[in-house]
Amino acid sequence: MTTLLIIIFIITLFYSAISGRMFTLINLLMIQGFLLFGVALIELRELNLLNLILILLETLIFKAILVPFLLKRTIRQNNIKREVEPYMSGINSLLIVSVLIVLSFILTFSLQDTFHKIIYFTAAFSAINTGLFLIMSRKKIITHLIGYIILENGIVLLSFSVGNEMPMIVNAGILLDILVSVLLFGFFLSKIKDISKDFEITKLSKLKD
Amino acid sequence: MIGVILILICALFFPGIIVFVKSRVTGRKGPGFFQPMKDIWRLLKKGNVYSKTSTIIFRLASPVYFASVIMAMLLLPMGDSPGIISFRGDFIFFAYALSLGKFFMIIGAMDTGSSFEGMGASREALYSMLIEPAFFILMASFGMLTGYSSFYEIYNSLYFDSSLTIFTGLLAVYVLIQIVMIENSRMPYDDPKTHLELTMVHEVMVLDNSGFDLGIIQFTSALKFVVFGSLMANFFITPEMPLWLSILVFIAVQIFFAALVGLLESFRARHKLRDNNQAILTLTPISILVFFSILLIITNQF
Amino acid sequence: MVILVFILCSFLLFIVPNKLKPYFNILLIVALVAWSSFYAIQVLLSGVSFSEILPVTFWGHSIELIIDPLSAFFICVINFTVLTGSLFSIEYMKMYGHKSSIELSIHYFSFFILHLSMILVTMIHQGIAFLVVWELMAVSSFMLVIFENEKCSVLRAGINYLIQMHIGALFLISAFILLHLKTGSFDFEALKLYFSQNVNIPIFLLFFVGFGIKAGFMPFHTWLPHAHPAAPTHVSAVMSGVMIKLGIYGILRVTMFLQADLLWIGVVVLLISLLSGVGGVACAIIQHDLKKLLAYHSIENIGIIGIGMGIGIIGIALQFPVVAFLGFAGCLLHVLNHSLFKSLLFYGSGIVYMKTHTRNIEYLGGLIKKIPLTALLFLIASLAICGLPPFNGFVSEFLIYNGIIDGLAGQEIWIKVLMLISLAGLVLIGGLAIFCFTKAFSVVFLGNSRKSDISFITEAKWYTTAPLVIIALCILFIGLFPQIAILPVSFVVNSQFANIMTSPEAYGNLPLIQNVGIAGMVFIGIILLILVLRMVITRHAPKEYADTWGCAYNGRIVNGQYTASSFAENFSTIAQPILNQKTNYKPIDREDIFPKQRGFETESEDMVEQKIYSKFIRSVNWIFSKMAIIQTGNTQHYILYAFLMIILLLILTVLTII
Amino acid sequence: MILAYFILTIITVLLVLLKHKVVHYIAMSVFTIGQLLLNVYLGMGGKPGFEDYFKVDSLGLIFLTLLSVVSITTIIQSFIYLSKRKDSIAHKSYYFASMVVFIASMSGVFISDHIGVMWIFAETTSLSIALLIYHERTSEAIEATWKYIFVSTIGLSFSFIGILLLDISISGVNASMFTFSELQGLFINTQNILMLQLSFLLIVIGFSVKMGVFPLHTVCIDAHSVAPSPVSAMVSTSLMNVGFVAIFRFFTLLSHSPVAGWMSHVLIILGGVSILVAAIYMVKVKNIKRLIAYSSVENMGLVALAIGVGGIAWFAAIFHLIIHTLVKSGIFYQIGQIIRFYKTKKVYYLGKYFSVNPIGAVVIILAFIMLSGIPPSGFFFSEFMLFSAMFKGDYIVIAVIVMLLLCFIIYTIAKYFFKILFGNINPDLLEKGEKISKWETIPQLILLLGALYISIAPPPFLSELIQDALITLPK
């Protein structure tokens, strides 16, 4: 069952590569949130109750509902142009994302770690790579945020595969940090508004040598 | 002590012979042998005219020049009697004493503040700088040949048996002649009788001297001729020669040298000023040639 | 313990009011001079080396001050010149009245620290402490050089100087590290163990380059012609008189322990010093700035000292004790002589600068009429530097000449040829020095003043010219009584260079030197005799004063005089390819009806600096500007760099390259 | 004890947010006293509480003391800095609040033993610094802050992936707690080398944003050039120490494993490249603060090189950092004074500072001597040890290149510093500058003289402290 969910997770990565509009990206985020919630529900049954609730809280509430809602609100408020202006065409980005996913397959096989399921690793690494690729290839700063959250989803997937070594406080701390960073991004987005109305990254490059 | 007296005597008649030979060659009767000396004697008693811009340096220049040549004279041996002062490496003192005299002549000339004397001074400084290596390499190679480094010991232990040694001796004499011609700025390098200041070297430096100073300078140039002449004469004087024979040989060499200078001057035209540099510079390779021939003598593979 | 007291009370300089600062500074320096030379003279006389352990421990090692004969000799040289420097600075610093009190106190403080660090450099044998004091000397002299910091050329020269000193120190650091790797200790004595076991040349070359940059040998000399004109006079006198010699001290200290392949080292040292001797004086001839001219002459004299050292090393290599003795004795005596006449020359140029506020000799002239005593002293010093007989320069060059001539008796042919080349080089240096100093002396002091108005100039104060007169007397004393001057030098050479078999001939040349002294006295006697003769003969002869003969032009010739560049012109045409003298003059083109005012000016850059150093730095700057693409300001690029770095390192690890 | 400390920080943050001038003074002084107490208590060997998350070893103690020294002077300088600016009271309270959180999270990193806890504190440092960089409310400030937070969170997520991989690679061995002290000996015979290499790689690249080493140093430079000078002093000294401590702890963790040789090569490459980058840009940069930021990058490159080279270079690395922290913070305060006087950061308009403020100029000269590694400065000895270690480990070629680059760097620093001190600019720029009070330079002088004292006569307890920070490393 979890492998099915993870495969859907990888499919959402493909779709994120070719999505042209901001709202499809945010919906993909929502789907990923639910998928993670499902994986967590099935995978981490033997955890103590409090830890489990914390993780479920984090994946469901935070990733599936709160962040997409915040992003949509900022887009509507600052009436940012809806298109995602990538540097390259959809096809090229799709090719690159698939190459990245193949690379993460090769990486996991070369790590020959027998203790953990390989599928977790590949999904985690491919999510991390696609997150990075999204950041590097899109002009809009909002897509940078979305790319960062996809990266975070990859990390959460990786931490599931670690199982339950991480004590509860540490998980709480990590979730807190991610939440605060997203809040800060939101706060500074409003500040960036007066520099570049439609949040172009190219406007943010005055400080150079 | 004999050397000094002999040099002073020869200096008296040396310029006379040069003038006599030059006039005889051009068919003139020419003045007596001691005419230049009479002129110098007349100058010594005359008054001096000093230029307003010149200072004590100018007054010091000609006496120091004269003293440096006398100092050089004291160092020279004569046959088997060494010079008044002779020690290991005294030819270094000989050369540097002469250059001290030239140093003072140059700054004396510059003291008058005239452009002509400046020209002469800078040319004199350049030419003296170019010929010094030649003299040193010559004396050093003879020092290497004999194993000593003072005039007296070098000349004592010199003996010319094989043809190569004679050849190197003649080459050395040729180099010494050229050095004297440059030192006194005689014909091939500078024409003493020319009146065009722009092309003169030594004469234009002493332009502003008068009276006693001019007299000393003319006497020193004669003295310098004889000093270098005695350097050449010592080649021909072998230690076992009796005294009277060595004196005769010495005077004969001086007379022959004076005549040679006279002949050279009457048949040679003056170099262009720019070519002077190369002409003088050729002396150093010749002395290096002397050095290598002596090298061959020592390793006796000739 | 005394040194800590010195350092503490040198901090008092910051509190002393401006008026008393120079005197307090002299007090400090006199105290240090007294303390250090008391021990140094004791060592020189008794021969037993003095050592004292400093209470403060430094990185775990306790610092030990050892004064052996070589360092005692150098301490005396340092003390004498620094003393005269501080005396000279009293009047000279009055020119800088406008400076703030903190600048003045920094100046005096770093002057004292320079003196202290120079003394300590000769005393410390422990590697790390030696390096610390070595670079302390560089920093304090840097602070002194940039004293007149309102001019940007002074700042550039100072920074250039500091960086070159640092590069020299890096050479020394790597040399000491290599020494430490093989022998486990940083001391100079460990060199003996090191040299006995492994190849001598590489570590000697490191030491030679490190000390050579400080000494100013030709290929690494580029800081010298910039730093000396920038520094105030008494500083540049101390720097070029003494601080350069510590480079020579370092090289001597290393050569003492050399055991293997001495011949090649001697040849290398000889060739480099010949290059720097001839090159230094050739560049000096076409200089217009008096201090820059003197700086190039420091390079030339370092070349002569180096030739003496090279001859000494070759003498040891070929087992010629006499040649070795003559070489090293000539080298050490020339160190003393050069510190004397070079500081005198710098003080003379300082007085000229103080009175006329310009160093460009084209504007000067006729100063002897206004400041005759300084002119006379400058003349004595320039005679001494050209090595002319009655003065001290001749004595040390005489020793080196004898060393070369005795060296001519070497077995192999190529050694004889090498000796011939060094003989010719030394003679050429002497001839060029005469050419250069006749120009310098006559253009600055003789004739009429070319551009600057010198009517109101008066002689410097008595307490400024007093040290100068003392130095001139010492120059004359060494020239006329060399056998006394040679005593400490021969003692140092015989005790330090133990492998020179102290053979009887080595002591044989003491009477040899005496003859030079006697000859000098006879020479002066003859000059006096002729002067008296002239006075007697021309007693009644009339004396008139008229204008210089001007080929029918009877006005006073002022700018008709021979200038410095025209004096040096016929030499620079010969040496054109080496000196690359540039003349910038815009010719009047044909259709220019009313040509504007034109100026003719020749200026010369330093060939070595131009061709090697500036070209290297320009190319590195060009490469750097091409490589500066990282900081583009775009966030995506920054993340891309991290991503690419991970991929790159992963590939390297997989291919097991790392 | 740690709990008391964090409660203190929360209280001070709340107090400071009350937007009242006097409250700021009281709160901040209480916080500094608390910080000092914590430091002294831990120095005396006190137990920090929460045994399995926090443990004080000598490495942490060294950098904690450095942090408290620098934070005291920073807070003093911040009061002076803020008193001169015309910001609103709310603005000032945000500044102090984020400063307190910043200092607390940094001390958290130094004393934390659990890897996850350390990562959390590292993450809070980068978040808490956002408001500090943004203090001057200019458009460059926004750009620099956005870049800094974004890139540092991504960098830290890289290192978090590395930590997870590390955790996975030891999951077979049943380690009770995922802390540095427990994991110390576990990696001696791990077979899965590629996993270890990948995790170390990600950790080093991730923390390079904190330590200011090659790949992610770029955002540090922007943050420095925009932040107020007390903040940039804090960033370039203690924040870079945080990066160093993190990387050094992982280095000691894996130093016994078969991957040790590879690790030192990676660090040498990163260190060398960051020195090269610093040299390239120092020649080109025109802004005085960016110049000093690049000099921090260069020093951190040297330290990374020293970790990689090993042997005596480890001692040199820590010694270098101690001197660097004291000197760099002193310089930044002085640069802040200069910028306040000349009202610009472009070096072209700075000059004649010696006549304006002699004592400040003496500080600059002292700082130059310390920075350039000329003997009285500690850098001379640390570089000496570094080079001897490199000569021993036959990295001679790299040593020569580094020496050359250092010469270039010293040349540029000298050129800029002495242009500021003595360069001549048009005089009317000088008159309208505000009067500088002598007392401001006192803390800088104390810092520099402290650094001078440590470099000339290193106190024995300091070298013992450094020695036993290196016990766990292979001899």
3D structure, described in words:
The complex is a heterotetramer of chains A (209), B (302), C (658) and D (475). With 209 residues, chain A is mainly alpha-helical. Chain A is built from seven helices and no strands. Chain A has helices at 2-18, 22-43, 49-77, 90-111, 118-137, 141-162, 168-192. Chain A is globular, with a radius of gyration of 17 Å. Chain C is mainly alpha-helical and 658 residues long. Chain C is 70% helix and 4% strand. Chain C has 23 helices and five strands. Chain C has a two-stranded antiparallel ribbon with strand order 1-2. A two-stranded antiparallel sheet of chain C has the order 4-5. In chain C, helix 2 (21-46) packs antiparallel against helix 3 (69-92). The mean pLDDT of chain C is 87. Chain D is 77% helix and 0% strand. Chain D is built from 20 helices and no strands. In chain D, helix 12 (288-309) packs antiparallel against helix 13. The model of chain D has no long low-confidence stretch (mean pLDDT 88). The chains are: A mainly alpha (209), B mainly alpha (302), C mainly alpha (658), D mainly alpha (475). At the B-C interface, strand 1, helix 3, helix 4, helix 5 and helix 9 of B face helix 14, helix 15, helix 16, helix 19 and strand 3 of C. Strand 1 (48-51) of chain B pairs parallel with strand 3 of chain C.
Radius of gyration of chain D, taken over Cα atoms and rounded to an integer in Å? 22 Å
- Helix percent band of chain D: over 70%
Oligomer: heterotetramer
> How many β-strand stretches of chain D?
0
Measured between the Cα atoms of the first and last residue of chain A, the distance is: 53 Å
Global geometry of chain D:
globular
Number of strands of chain A: 0
Give a short overview.
The complex is a heterotetramer of chains A (209), B (302), C (658) and D (475). Chain B is an all-alpha fold and 302 residues long. Chain B has helices spanning 2-25, 35-45, 56-75, 90-111, 115-146, 151-156, 163-183, 202-205, 212-236, 243-267, 273-281, 283-298; one strand spanning 48-51.
